[in-house]
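job 3f2a | input accepted
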Amino acid sequence: MKKVRYKEFFAGVVLAVAFAFPWPSLLEVDPYTDVRVISVVPTEDGVVVTANFVKKSCTFKRLEAFGTDLGQTYNLDWVNVETNPESDHGTTYDRAVGNQTLRILIKTKGAPFDTLEIRTRHSCDGTDTDRTFLKIEVPDVTIT
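job 3f2a | predicted structure (144 res):
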C-alpha cells in the first residue's frame, strides 16, 4: 500500500486555490474604462451628469440610474441631454468604440438623494456584463 504524502497534497491544494481565483477576473472584459465625471449640475427637473469614458468593443444593452436616500435605493428615470437634438440616438444606442461623453438628466422628482449611481449592462463576447458606471455624492445645492 502506498503512503499518502499529505504535505505535497496540501501544497498542491494551496497552489491550485491561489492560482484559480485570480484568473476569472483577468479574463473578464470591461465594456468601458477611464470614467471621469466632468460635472454634476442640479436643475429643477433633476441632476445633469456629464462624464467622459472610453468605450470598448462590448455591445451596449441598457443604462439604469439609481438614487439612494436614507438607506433606500430607488430606480430613477433618465433622458439624454444633447447639445444638438439631431445627435440624440435614443436610450439604447450602442456608441462607437473610443472616447465618448455621456450627458444625461437623472429625474430625481424633487427628492434629496444622497448618492446617484449609473449602472450599465453590456454584452461582451456573448456574456451579459453588469457594471457600475459611476457613483457620485449629490451636491447640497438649492435650486432657486
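job 3f2a | The helical segments are 6-20, 22-27.
job 3f2a | closed
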